[in-house]
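U., I forgot to send this yesterday:
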Amino acid sequence: MTQPTRTGHTPMERVLYEVKKIIVGQDHLLERLVVALLARGHILVEGVPGLAKTMAIKTLAGSIGGEFKRIQFTPDLVPADLTGTRMYSQKTGDFSVSFGPVFTNLLLADEINRAPAKVQSALLEVMQERQVTIGRETYPVPNPFLVLATQNPIESEGTYPLPEAQVDRFMFKVLVGYPSTTEEFVIVERMTAPLQAVQRVLDAEQLLELQREVAQVYVDPALIEYAVRMVAATRDPKTVGMEQLSRYVTFGASPRASINMILAARALAFVRGRAYALPQDVRDMALDVMRHRLVLSYEALSDNVSADDLLGDILGRIPTPEVPLHERQTTRRNA
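Result:
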């Protein structure tokens, strides 16, 4: 585990400290952003306008070294605006490659649902394989590489639903709500005064080292079984005695949900200062990992049943495994 610095804070605590100079509240979002960074997962943030979704992501990027780029998605974009293209030189008679903004460490895809499907699909390869094919050549993007996307759920004019294949590539979909009145008072007070400068406290190499440490966090097989049972229950709710919910689900979560739940639980355990994951880490990740992976039926829409409603009912039926994980983890290390 990464040791605290002389100030007594771990690197991720120092990152959060810098972000909280600007962002008020939103603890759930900020924790998920940090977990996504450590677990090498992409994150989709959804909320109404004015909730500082973009500012939170930009501030986080400012506290981390490496290259940061932003794409403002609009209906007139073409795929080459994201990935790059081949350019012909009349002087040399050769083609050269002009790389697009996806060649970066942190990519902010702002209002990603404002571009048509062909533009959104340009991110499919780079999000999954961390490479881009331009012409006949394939080029790797820098490491680490993370896509941080925002979208507005209340507008329909000029927006395009994300393809299911792309949605499935996001580790998390985080919903951002309105602040409390106390938080909003602090927001107004802070935003109407000169903002504090955000210090860079982590570079790309340090982030890669933290990601390697997260990969060593111990996950008991019982937790993998727990994650698989939760995901499988979304495909067939009657296996957990919720047959009445089957009419609301057209397609359940994919195996990516099981994988990402374990990867995220590892990172969350690391953030919480442990070298082993607990059932609560898996459970805490479940909604953010699975809500965007359910395809609901028209009956669910007509009955105003959300993915979170279904997941809450289903997950409540799955017993939490009782495993002395810390003892087994210690035994494993001593073996």
